[in-house]
Amino acid sequence: MTNFDKINVKHENKFIRHDPNMLNSVYGTTNVEPYWVADMDFEVATPIRDELLRLAQRAHFAYEFNSQDVLKAIVDWYQRRHDLVLKQENLVQVPGVLTGVAMLIRELTKPGDGVLIQTPVYHQFKKVIGSAGREVLRSPLQVIDGHYRMDFDDLEQQFSSGKVKVMLLCNPHNPVGRVWTQDELAQLLKLARAYQVFIISDEIHSDIIFAGHSFHSMAGFTGENFASLIGSPSKTFGMQSISNGYIYSANQDLLAKTKASLDSMYLGHSNVLSNYATIAAYTQGEIWLDEFLQYLENSINWIQDFLQQELPQVRLYPVEGTYQIWLDFSNTDLPAEQVKQLLVDARMALTPGAWFESGNELMFRMNIASPLAQIQEAFKRLQQKLSA
Ligand SMILES: Cc1ncc(COP(=O)(O)O)c(C=O)c1O
């Protein structure tokens, strides 16, 4: 049984999340607990660590091709975990998810073409589209009955304008925590097909799904030529700095072009540490993941109850997936700057909502992949600050 409760672990100052310079520049102090960058405080699963230790004891680091073993581990994982049969030959490896997104955007669009995102969304999306010289188009998510939804009318309007060549979907959605349903995805694909919009589905959070919800991959829609998934074990298993990623597409033309571009830049494989760690994660990490999900659910339940009873002015959106929770401070009736300062005073370094789209200044994203006792103390401090 993994101990997720270990507290006061000394983290490296070079970790972005814990880096004093970074904390100072964003929060004006180092005296905060980091709940911002989306990696975790927990130790990786023992099989991953054992595998890395085994490799570290090697005396040789010769060229080694083990991509096929990685791809097989990915295929087996999807079958076991998501009941989805992927064809190994439709997968290509990339160094990380954003690399995969950047590659596909370049394959599918020309400079100046429009790439649509559903805001608020993971802030690097704008950067990856903009730095490719493509135009960022936005379809804001709607909040209906306290739930974030896709705005299908707006999507249809924008798709039909002919300006949108590609849509970059976040599935599940960071930061709002939605796990898109089969019906929502089918409706989206219907529109995409009708208007020839290609969907790139970033599925990096696909394994962090809570009870009552199920993940549906874009790759699960049979014969689908208008979508492609990009995934990675890095969020699931806390392997951010030994990242690995993969693109899956049933579109043979796109697949061939992507493979050729990757090969031309010698990017179509990862390093041996990432590869063996990925294989260990996908073949032996399942027990750890189930325990991790249980731990997170318990933390979410505690946070929900605490907010309901002690801090009803802070609203938590339903957490269907991801270890990011999305908190709304509008009912505190405080200006955004003051909320930000109160959070810092409570020593909580949360990600400002405006990073994900302006207009979300009273929203904050909290990464809850930390020991619950630490999170509990943080919320208690916040309660004191908010009621002072
Ligand atoms: C939706 C999403 N995509 C991609 C990434 C980054 O992926 P990578 O580090 O593999 O490029 C993140 C990290 O937070 C993310 O939330």
Structural commentary:
The chain has 388 residues and is α/β, with parallel strands linked by helices. It has 13 helices and 15 strands. The chain folds into two domains: 127 residues, Alpha-Beta Complex (Aspartate Aminotransferase, domain 1), CATH 3.90.1150.10; 225 residues, Aspartate Aminotransferase, domain 2 (3-Layer(aba) Sandwich). A hairpin with a 7-residue loop joins strand 11 and strand 12. Helix 3 packs parallel to helix 10 and helix 6 packs parallel to helix 7. It is globular, with a radius of gyration of 21 Å. The model has no long low-confidence stretch (mean pLDDT 96). The site of pyridoxal-5'-phosphate (PLP) has 13 residues, from helix 4.
Sheet-strand content, in percent, reads 5-15%
Our count of domains comes out at 2
Radius of gyration: 21 Å
- What is the second-level CATH architecture of the largest domain? 3-Layer(aba) Sandwich
Please bin the fraction of helical residues. 40-55%
Task: Note the overall shape.
Answer: globular
Helix count, DSSP H or I runs of 4 or more residues: 13
- Determine the N-to-C terminus distance: 40 Å
Average of per-residue pLDDT values:
96
Per CATH, the superfamily of the largest domain is: Type I PLP-dependent aspartate aminotransferase-like (Major domain)
Number of strands: 15
Q: What strand line-up does the widest sheet have? A: 2-10-9-8-7-3-4
| Uncertain runs | none
What's the CATH first level of the largest domain? Alpha Beta
How many strands, what sense, and barrel or not for the largest sheet? 7 strands, mixed
Order of helices and strands: HEHHEHEHEEEHEHEEHEHHHEEHEEEH
Helix and strand composition category: alpha/beta
Q: Identify every distinct bound molecule in the structure, by name, code or SMILES.
A: pyridoxal-5'-phosphate
The name of the CATH topology of the largest domain is: Aspartate Aminotransferase, domain 2
